[in-house]
Amino acid sequence: MRALISVYDRRGLEVFARELAELGVELVTTGGSTETYLRELGLDPTSIEVPQMLGGRVKTLHPRVHAGILARRDLEEDVATLVETGIEPIDLVVVNLYPFTSDPGVELIDVGGPAMLRAAAKNFAHVAAVCDPDDYDAVIAELRERNELSAETRRGLAAKVFAHTSAYDGAIARWLGGDDFFPERLVPAFVKELELVYGENPHQRAAYYRGADAACHLLSDVEKLHGRDLSFINLYDLAAARGLLAELGDQAACVIVKHANPCGVAVAGTVDEAYELAYAGDPLSAFGMVIALNRPVGAALGESLAQRFIDVLYAPGYEPAGLEALQRKADTRILQGPAIEPGGLDAKRVPGGILVQETDSLLEARDQMELVCGVLDEDGWQDVLFAWAVCKHVSSNAIVLARNRQAVGIGAGQQSRVDAVRLAVDKAIERGHDLNGAVLASDAFFPFADGPQLALEAGVRAVIQPGGSKRDSEVVAAVGKAGAAMVFTHHRHFRH
Predict the structure, then answer these.
(1) What is the set of active-site residues?
(2) What was the pLDDT predicted at 104?
(3) CATH code assigned at 45
């Protein structure tokens, strides 16, 4: 057996190359740094004599390399050609590519590496292609056991090669396309990060894939400290919770999510207070919750959280006593990690394709808004800004009622905006919240005054909404007549 080795990433190569040599595999190179490295290890690779030119740009693109890889061993004509030309067959191709995604540039666009890998993968009936150092151990184990690699293994390695080179080409295409968010051909690439215990339902298999060249992703630098395996819904809800948490500013904050919608949100002087207020916003919905905090969990908060049924808890850190209290619940998934950075593209599957848009990373500042009627003091402004941030992360049609930076009523996913208001008001009253002096946020404009009227009758003193309806004047007049204030943001935030 002959193994052609040409790698940029030498991770694990020393052990792998030595074990191949111990198994009697002939190591082959095309010169360059890989050959130098193997010789420094005391190994004696065979060098395929190929002409090099153009500063090394042309080296492995030669029949002595590719004929040895592509020859079909069960075809007499191919075997005869190798004999006539003095080219020896290659049985194992060990190649990894220049690290284009970490440092994009023309000189890091690998040409010879992908060509060798694709050739080996095409000829998987006779040749094994290894592009990932993580596969070295499995390859060695099978060679020790069988003295060859099975057809199933070669086919699996070939599939991995084509996925790998496809992702590599996609990264290059995206780089060459520059700032064009919507090229004629969208070539996304994802890498499996985590097998999930199940999907939206237990009978559905699921996995989490991160963007292959994403600078950060949902589980970047996230450590699981305790609890059961993560499910599809856990991660979907965690994404919702972390996304909202990132927009609540520097104050201590708590976000509680159920089924991708916030059901409890608050900011306060301490994270303990923020949690208590968020939970009190809708304790009925918070059963089996996903919680995200932007401050470490101390001993007292850990004890308090341990009294609740929590599916996932996310925080930047945990004091030992707080973590110990939480770990008494065997099932609670305890995660530790940093804040998330919004941005990039958002995609939704539809039959036969996907809908792609920029992520909604806009959150209007106070000086971009327009007070169209009434008066707001500083506390009032803080409440409407808080309610607006929360409303952006609620499924449309969305209504959020808030008071003293605490969400007290949320109407989510309603076909009618009036129904969304009614639901938010009814939930707030049923949970025992006083709506006198509360504020209302709506993710899109009110086409009629009937929606705000329900909230005004319940005691709401201010409304924040995008504006832009043909009947804006009627809606503003109704709010002004009730002695309340209204703010236009001039941007809507639908979330479907």
Answers:
(1) 122, 259
(2) 75
(3) 3.40.50.1380
